[in-house]
Amino acid sequence: ARSGPAPVAPVGGDRMEGVVREWNPRGFGFVLFPDGRRAYVHHSFMGGGNLAEGECVFATLVEDVKNPGKWAAMDLVRKEALAPQPLTAGPLAVPTGPILPAGPILPMAQPDAGAGERLEGVVTEWSERGYGFLQVSDGRRAYVHVSAFGTGDLAPGEVVNVIVVEDPQSPGKWQARALQRGPLGEDGVVVEWRREGGFGFVAMEDGRRAYVHRSALGGGDLRVGARLRVQTRPDGRNPGKWSVASVRTEVHDPAEADEGVGFQRPCGAVVLDWDLRGYGFVQTDDGRRVYVHHSSFGSGNLNAGERVSVVIIPDQRNPGKLMAQTLARDGGLVAEGCRAPG
């Protein structure tokens, strides 16, 4: 049984088209390719998220080192994220009978520049007619339509992650596709925490066990049983094992949140200072100093002394410090009793 993505040895750089034949909600499955090969895929190979059985994708086939003689699908890109170019062969049919080799490997259609990489963004505008705009983490402003995520509405200030491509109807502008709600990351549950040492372990949904240190959450302690969204990486000190690079947010029932990190739940704060270039700092009611960028609330400027509420996450560029994931101005929800971690 697998415990996570296996190391792989590349055998070629071209992607080929395949069809998702199996998918487990824990984040892994199998893709069938036209030449008859069946390849394992883990959601970390595509930046997170889930695939749907029957979905067409493009990926690079590599030998699966953990399972000699078998294959893994790397650098996977969903078909919807690619430029609308014709393939060198007709549409791929999903086989229903015995799988037989089907000729040479077919190259992929080339994606738009920048397609395939997932980026975080903040919803800045949303219309009830089913479209709006995002401020993407790399500075681009992207149009988004409800068809990019299925049904429902987005809310200004909401954090999402998307694939950004050129807008085919507006040359020189950008469009968001394959939208997923929430920040980038993978979900897991805290199964062990040693407060005196400031470290513990997270059981990931795909079966991996990842080491986590309190520096990955900006200080404080974690609560055993807490469900987290994290970014993982190979553990440099323990080859073959995993560690948590950063804790993005905690997913929990607010009624149960009486200890552990104060992420996800809005905290009352006061603006300390604001630079007209679009950033500044707030101080939460429990005394923490938090960096704020205007993308966390859309646009405009804040005023020193203004009352706001913020959802706090670790500052990815400044380990050990905090930043606002979203901010609500006067009149927004201000949580009471938000306390400092630790």
TrEMBL record:
Which molecular-function annotations from GO does this UniProt entry contain? mRNA 3'-UTR binding
Q: Which InterPro entries match?
A: Ca-reg_mRNA-binding_domain (IPR052069), CSD (IPR011129), NA-bd_OB-fold (IPR012340)
GO terms for biological process, alphabetical: regulation of mRNA stability
Assigned GO CC terms: cytoplasm
Occurrences of domain Cold-shock (ranges)? 17-79, 120-182, 187-250, 269-330
What name does this protein carry? Cold-shock domain-containing protein
